[in-house]
Amino acid sequence: RQTYASVFDSVMVWEDEHQREQSWKNIHLDPSNIFPRLDVLIPGFPEGLASLIERMLSRDPAQRPRMGADALGEYSRVTTGIQPMTWDPRGGMPQQPEAPKPRKWTPAKFVMIGGLILICIGVGVVTIPKLLAPDPKLVADVGTWKKEAESRKEKAIAARAPERPASDEAKLSYDTGASALTEANALLKDEDYKKALPGYQKAAISLGKALIAISKENAEKAKAAASAAGGDKAPAFAEADTKMKAAADSAAAQQMHGAVDGYDGAKAAFDDLAKALTALTAAEKDAATKRDTANRVGAGDSPDFTKAKGLMADAKTKGEQWQIPAAMTGYGDATKLFDALIADVMAAKDGATALKQKVADLYASIANRAGAADPTLAAIQPKLSEADGRYAAEAYKLAIVGYQPILADLEALSARGFCPVSQTLAFETVPAGSYSLENVRLMTSSMKELGGMLGVANGAVKIDKSFCMQTKAVTRAEMAEYYTANSDPAAAQAYADNPQQPADDVPLAVAQNYTAWLSKQLNAPVHLPSATEWMASAVKIPAEKLPDNGDIILQWSATPCEAGGNVAFMAQEGSTFVVCSDASAGGIFRVTAELR
Is domain 427-594 annotated with CATH 1.10.3720.10? Predict the structure, then answer.
């Protein structure tokens, strides 16, 4: 049954009668086509009718009946036994055989006639719809163009063609194609294949133009980016440009796929070139930044720094020769060396920071004790500024090298100690040691016991701890300032004359009160010198010229005498005499302080 159905389908699909006959002939002559008899396929099917059908199918198509009536006539002759006219072999006139007696109609004959009628009806049912159906080739073409148009529309939407400006070429082509596609779909719904086909073709062509315009624009933008990145002289740039020209030729020939593929390929090539050149520029910039950083932090003298600079120079040469991967590798290797140098310097940051803080703290302490104008401290300042500059530049190793000798100098300076700092008072350090007292004598032999009390031995006095001694005696102006500060204008007025001369009439108690007041002004404790300190300072510090008023001028010490009063000193004719004086007597004095 399947074989018969296939045969009828392949024959009846043709509208032209000649084409159908040719199809029958091809099937008949094909030895691979074996048609079983109907009485084999259908049990009980009349054998005579099966034979008739078999003869009709095996006969040359030109010899077959053209109409159903002809087929019925032949069937009647077969069933009634009437044979066609024959000729006398002896050459005479044709002889008509004696007509057989008519046979009666039997049920088998009715069955055979009914079967033949059913066959004719079946053939009509199969062939008539096919004859009325549209051309299969037309249907296939419509399907092909419809699919292509819809595919191009999807691609155009993905490329955002509908979102482009109204006057844009791609937008105009897209709108035309989309409209044509909608109209063609409506025609296809009405099964008007002949009108739908050109509609789909128009839609596909217009949408293809939109895709070409978008791809071309993208390729041109990529080309501009590659040129801006400096790649317009690169071999890859020329190759991509060739692809663009080939794509333009395809577009001119309305070869949409070739044009789009060409432009997309050119865009990809331009993008790759621009990306590679951008990465190369970034790598070069990164290496240069790391080089400058390494140099700034003091790694410029390292052999690895020189090696990295060589790698950069080689990478630049390769980049100019468009050997981009090799150039990237060179810059990358140089950057790694610079990073290692920088990391090595950064590892010294904590040590440099701690050393910097230690130097700063000690410097501030010394400046507070000695004053910023101290000559030794002033000499250290330029070196300290240089080391601080290295630290600020993150050259931590070089900063450590600079801070270390500064710290040593500051520690030595701090260990030496400092006298109180004042804008108006001057102090001098009296170092510890032994001082000869050749010019210091006792007034009378009855006072020789003072020698032991004063610490004098073998004509010398020994100082165990360095101290600070005021270089000049307290002046009249300083005493006037003291009385003014203590709200005693009358006493201050008494010292108004000769302000720069030593105040030579100050009682011991007033001198002690003055030292207490001065301690607050200097923010450092000061006091009257002991007799031992006074004698040592007399050897170390040159004596100042005292006023010559004819009176004996005493110089106070803080050392009391055993019999009362305090040890005082007076200078006369190049010698210094030690006496015990009543505390109420007037005299001059200087103050002393411990080293800080």
Answer: no
